[in-house]
Amino acid sequence: MNDHEQWRELAQQLRVDSIRTSDAAQSGHPTSSLSAADLMAVLVSNHLHCDFDEPDNPNNDYLIFSKGHASPLLYSMYKALGLVSDEELLTYRTTASRLQGHPTPSLPWVKVATGALGQGLPVGVGLALAAKRLDHLPYRTWVLCGDSEMTEGSMWEALEHAGHLGLDNLTAIVDVNRLGQRGFTMHQWDLDAFAGPAKALGWHVITVDGHDLEAIDNAYAEAVGMPGQPTLIVAKTLKGKGVTEVEDRNEVHGKPVQDAETAIEELGGARDDVKVETSMPVTDQAPHEFEVAGADIPEFEVGEEVATRKAFGQAMVALGSARGDVVSLDAEISNSTNSQLFTVAHPERYFEMYIAEQLMVAAAVGVQIRGWVPYVSTFAAFLTRAYDFIRMAAISQADMNLVGSHAGVSIGEDGPSQMGLEDLAMFRAVHGSTVLHPCDGNQTAQLVWQMADRPGISYLRTLRSGLPVIYSADERFEIGGSHVVRQSDEDQVAIVACGITVHEALEAAET
After folding, report:
1. What dihedral do alpha carbons 333, 414, 316, 393 form, nearest 10°?
2. What is the dihedral angle through the alpha carbons of 362, 368, 372, 373, rounded to the nearest 10 degrees?
3. Environment class of residue 510 by beta-carbon count within 10 Å: exposed (0-12), middle (13-18) or buried (19+)?
């Protein structure tokens, strides 16, 4: 059996198992899986370099299903790789199963949760950046995208950024099956609608028949060999490919095939002996490590007026000197957030993400997958537009730090559009989050350092205006603790405050 015959058999088995999983669950997205089966069969057989027995191997390629609803296809691939048994495959979507309706890191080979459309490619940009700028390793990132999600603005933030930086270790594959959840997609099979804008943004673009195995193989090889540009493979496919009942039909999205037995027979029956082995990583190098010089937490004198955003910037410089794994991402306002100080001190670990907050948060998720410690900064008000990415970061079990400056109404002259007011409630609603709102420079500096070792999503809220330092530099601040700042035997009311309201409370106590 030659390569093409093996790939064809594998693709058909992936289709069969995608039908079987969703039939067992009586839910799922088999038709979205069937359209991409040929694309994934060739990729996993001939181009993906990954040691699945060592899912944390730093040289593994990454495969992200941005169209996470095609999870039956992903899990069927894992079965063909010998990673999950047939018995486990049929636990799809059941309580306590690792095989959830959309992929999550409950499986060691899934590094990021997907299913909220428009997020896989931005995360892929973060991984590609980490490979180039931080790890100095040749691993590649492959992202399977759906045509419907290409209308998400975050996808174009990612396309623009990757093209601008020439991330030639990133390949995006768009499964253009022309049918969305309720009917036709915006561009249907107009491949130029995807290809033209991507070319304009600096991508190398290849259009293929998504069921022509040789053309797919050639496209992947071309992508790997393309220097200086990321590659977008735009593949024309048939939704529900190979099954008459559902092929290229509306109104079958997100539903199991009604006659699974007939569909499986039409695909040639089950092929339980079809197995696949991927190629090993192309190198066994260790990731790059940045030199550290050692540094102390910045200290400020009691009574000195210091804006907490400035204390954040100074603390980041020192932290970056003490720890080579700390990186900074900012949305083109580093001179206001004060992450600009980190840019000057540690330019090799600073990422300018421009005004693209959704991409910035997703890229930070990608960076932290690689073990780096990202600090993501912008105005507190503008983090709200990235909320779904923050929510999904928590589901991905990401360890990352976000910093929102210019918080609250104290920047009144800038008007309500700039005031971060909803951010506290937003971050408190995120599973496992830590929300920090320091009131002075010493408190801020200490909390910035503690965040580096804090698991989950941590959010630091900083202020524009200068505030007098209340606490001495030797005072310690345990996350989750509290300090009594003023008290007397005559007290009848307790005021609980944080951030700038501590200063207002002190003024009330002293009048």
Report:
1. -70
2. 80
3. exposed
> Given the structure tokens 């009048």, which residue do they identify?
511
Annotated catalytic residue: which of 357, 422, 478, 510? 357
Buried b (16+ CB within 10 A) or exposed e, 145-170: bbbbbbebebbbbbbbbbbebbbbbb
Is the Cα torsion angle 114, 117, 121, 125 positive or negative in sign? negative
Whether pLDDT at 272 is above 80: no
- Do 305-509 and 3-266 have the same topology in CATH? yes
Residue type (1 letter), 267 = L
Tokens of 397: 């079990």
Q: In the annotation, is 357 catalytic?
A: yes
Q: What is the pLDDT of residues 339-349, one digit of tens each?
A: 999 999 999 99
The residue with tokens 């730090």 is: 401
Burial classification of residue 287, based on how many CB atoms lie within 10 Å of its CB (0-12 exposed, 13-18 middle, 19 or more buried): middle
Find out whether 229 and 203 touch, Cβ atoms under 8 Å. yes
Q: What is the pLDDT of residues 446-471, one digit of tens each?
A: 999 999 999 999 999 999 989 999 99
Which pLDDT tens digit goes with each residue over 293-310? 989 999 999 999 999 999
Question: H/E element holding 45?
Answer: helix 37-46
Paired strand residues for 170: 141
Q: What is the CATH number assigned to the segment(s) 3-266?
A: 3.40.50.970
DSSP symbol at 143: E
Tokens in use for 163? 């093209």
Query: What architecture is the 305-509 domain classified under in CATH?
Result: 3-Layer(aba) Sandwich (3.40)
Domain boundaries, the chain: 3-266, 305-509
Kindly provide the residue ranges of all beta strands, DSSP E only, lying in 7-112, ordered along the sequence.
62-65
C-alpha pair distances (Å), 122 with each of 142, 158, 231, 353: 12, 5, 14, 11
Distance separating alpha carbons of residues 128 and 116, to the nearest angstrom? 21
Q: How far apart are CA 411 and CA 418, in angstroms?
A: 8
Given a cut of 90, whether residue 273 has pLDDT beyond it is no
Angle at 71 between CA 176 and CA 370, to 5 degrees: 95
Measure Cα distances from 329 to 67, 98, 311, 333, 356 in Å.
Answer: 26, 33, 17, 10, 11
Return all residues near 5 (Cβ < 8 A) that are at least 6 apart: none
φ, ψ of residue 170 in degrees (nearest 5):
-120, 130
Through-space distance between the first and last CA atoms of the chain, rounded to whole angstroms: 89
